[in-house]
Amino acid sequence: MTSLLEEAAAEHAASSASYFSSSLLQLHGLYQSLIHQSLAHSNNSNAVFLAERLVAFLPSHPNSSFLLATAYHRSRMTRAAYSTLQAVTDHPPSRFLFARCCMDLDLLQEAENALRDILQDPDQLAREDDVGETNRDVVGADVLQVEHAWCLLGTVCKRSGKREDAKAAFRKALGDHLGQAPEARDVFVLPSEDAKKTAGGPGPAETQRALTRNLRPRKDNNEKKRTHDVMREVQVKSETGRAENDTATAATSASRQILRTLEILGRATRHLSRYECREALTTFTELPESDLHTGWVLVQVALSYYEIARYTSALKYFRQARDLEPWRTQGFDVYGSCLWHAKQEMELAALATKMETHERSRPETWCVVGNLYSLRLDHDSAIKAFERAIHIDPYYHYAHTLMGFEYKSKDALKESIECLQTSCQIDPKPYNP
Q1: What pLDDT is attached to residue 432?
Q2: Cβ proximity of 70 and 78 under 8 Å
Q3: Which of 361, 358, 298, 284 is nearest to 334 (CA)?
Q4: Whole-angstrom Cα distance, residue 269 to residue 290?
Q5: How many CB atoms lie within 10 A of CB 406?
Q6: How far apart are CA 66 and CA 91, in angstroms?
Q7: Model confidence pLDDT, tens digit, residues 144-178
Q8: What is the pLDDT of residue 20?
Q9: Contacts of 157 (CB under 8 A, 6+ apart)
C-alpha cells in the first residue's frame, strides 16, 4: 500500500508538470498556427507582430526565434532575421535560414560555415530520437531536407569563386542521377523520399491530437499482484480522464492568455491612434513583463511620449528598443524626429550612419538621414533624402510630411502645400512631425 501511495504521489507531480508543459505547448501551437496563417496569406507584418509576441512568451525556444526570423525574412528584413538567428546554433532549420540571410547580405564565408555545421551530421536533420513525431506535431519542429542544404552550399561556394567545392555540393544535392555537376541548374533539387514531411506546423486539431497522444498513460509492465493490478487499472482510467481534462484546460488557458494580451495591445493602439497618449501609456502597463520589454511595445511607449512632446522620456524608450533590437527600423523614423527636436546631433548622426549602412532599402532610413541634414540646415540634401524614402515607398506618408516642412523652411510654400496634401491623402489623420 505504501508503494502505491508513493507511486500515486509521483504521478501527481508528473501530472502537474505535464499540465504546465501542455499549457506552454498549447500556447506555442496557437501562436504558431496564427503566424503560419498570416504567412500563407502574405500578411507578413501581422506575422512579425505575432512572432514577436511568441518570442516574448517563449524566448528560449528555438522554434520561436525561427518563426520570427522567417517572418522578418518574408518581410525583406534580412538584417533583422540574421540578427535573430545569430545565437541559435542547435536548430538546423534556423541555421539554414541564417545561412540564406548571410548569402543575401553577402556574408559568404559565414553562410558556408553555417551550412557545413549542418552537414557535418546530416542524420540529425530528421532523426526521430532528437525530434520525435509527437514533438514535431506539437511544436512544429521543421524538418530540413539535406539536399536543400547541399544546394544552398553549392550556390554560396559558386558566388565565392570556389568552383570545385560548388561542383561537389551540387553533386551531393542531385545524388547519382546526373553524371556531371549541374552548374546551369544550381537551384534544382530532386524530390526527397521524405517529401511527405512538411515544414508547416500543425493546426489546432493536430495539436490537440498530439497532446492527447503525448499524455496518454503507458501500460504498467511490472505486474506484481492481482490487487495491485486492479488498483492500477482504476488509477490508469482516472489518469486518462484527468489528462484529457488537463489538455482541454491548457488549451482554454492558452487561448485566453493570447486574447488577453492582444486585447490590451489593441486598446493601447487605439488610444495612440486617437492621440490619447496618456491613456495609451496607462494601458501598456497592463501587459505582462515579457511583452512589455519587447521592441515593438517599447517603440509604442516612446511614440506615446513623443506625441505629447515629452522628448526626454520618448528617447529613453527609443534607446531601450534600439539596444534590445539593434536591427529594428519600424518606428525609428520618429526616433530620428525626436532627436531632431531634442537637438541631439551626435546621436542622430550615429543612428543615420548605422541605418544607412545596414538598411538602405528601408524608407525609415532615409527619413532619419533627412532629419540629420535638416538639423544641420542643409535643406536641399534633406529633401533629396525624403525623396529617396518616397521612391522606395510612394505611400509612406511620413516622408511626404517631413518633406513638406522642409520646403516650408525654404519658404517654398507651394511645394510645401503639395507635399502635405499628398500626406493627408495617404493618411487623413493629423500628424505631429
Answers
A1: 53
A2: no
A3: 298
A4: 18
A5: 25
A6: 9
A7: 678 888 899 999 998 888 989 988 988 888 773 44
A8: 42
A9: 112, 163, 165, 166, 169
DSSP 123: G
| Single-letter amino acid, residue 405 | F
Instruction: List CB contacts of 14: < 8 A, sequence separation 6 or more.
Output: none
How far is Cα 284 from Cα 304, in angstroms, rounded to an integer? 10
What is the rounded distance in angstroms from the CA atom of residue 143 to the CA atom of residue 123? 11
Give 233-299 as a DSSP string. Answer: HHHHHHHHHHHHHHHHHHHHHHHHHHHHHHHHHHHHHHHHHTT-HHHHHHHHTTS-HHHHTSHHHHH
Amino acid at 394: P
Residues in the chain, how many?
Answer: 433
Q: Is the pTM of this model over 0.70?
A: no
The total of other beta-carbon atoms located within 10 Å of residue 227's CB is 10
Residues 313 and 315: their CA atoms lie apart, in Å, by 5
One-letter amino acid for residue 130 of the chain = D
Share of the chain above pLDDT 90, in %: 46
Q: How far apart are CA 181 and CA 168, in angstroms?
A: 7
CB 82 within 8 A of CB 105: yes
**Backbone dihedral angles phi then psi of residue 378, each to the nearest 5 degrees:** -95, 80
Asked if residue 211 lies in contact with residue 247, where contact means CB atoms within 8 angstroms, the answer is yes
Cβ atoms < 10 Å from Cβ of 183: 12
Q: Is residue 165 left, alpha or beta, with left meaning phi > 0 and alpha meaning psi from -120 to 50?
A: alpha
Tell me, what amino acid is at 346? M
Q: Are 112 and 156 in contact (CB under 8 A)?
A: yes
Q: Which three cell numbers stand for residue 364?
A: 525609415
